[in-house]
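Q: Structure tokens for this one, please.
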Amino acid sequence: MTRREIVERGALGVGAVICLMLALVLGLLALDVARSRDALAQSDVQYRITPGKTGMWRASTHVPFDLAVTLIGTDDDVELRRAVRSMRLARLDDPTVSLSDPEIALLRNDAQARLDALVAGDADVKTKSRAAGLLGVLGLAHLGSETQDRVALLGATVANLQLAIALDPTNDEAKYNLELARSSGRAASS
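A: Here is the predicted structure, written as tokens:
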């Protein structure tokens, strides 16, 4: 066997190993994609049963850097779900909740930060509209308990709801909440 034949066989062997490794990585990536999709559906059900559970909407993956999540494009969906979860756990609809409770304040701040990031980020228009509308809902909840800076808070709430409608004119929740905010403003100024 000549030196050239040995080099060619070695190159073929290295090429075969590289192809095998690539096939393995792609197989693991396909498994991660399937797991990530399943995790969304399963966690949506789990959220309805136990909204306080942590670690929802993410599957354990084999390929690093959440490549599967990036490929299927569910980052924004997960962030919106987590913001809604924080809002629900902050009990916005319960007027007896004390805003001085640090856990409630942290949950509301978490929701606001996630929603702000979605509105400012590169999410699709419907997701941005939903996030802006939910920022308006947070503002409405604060209006019910806030005694200072109500004018600024009302202005920010109305601006978020108007943004939600501008982004998605079919966002009926934002339209309803905008009217609610405006009527709250009229009632406060009377």
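A few notes: Residues 3-49 form the longest helix (47 residues). The mean pLDDT is 85.
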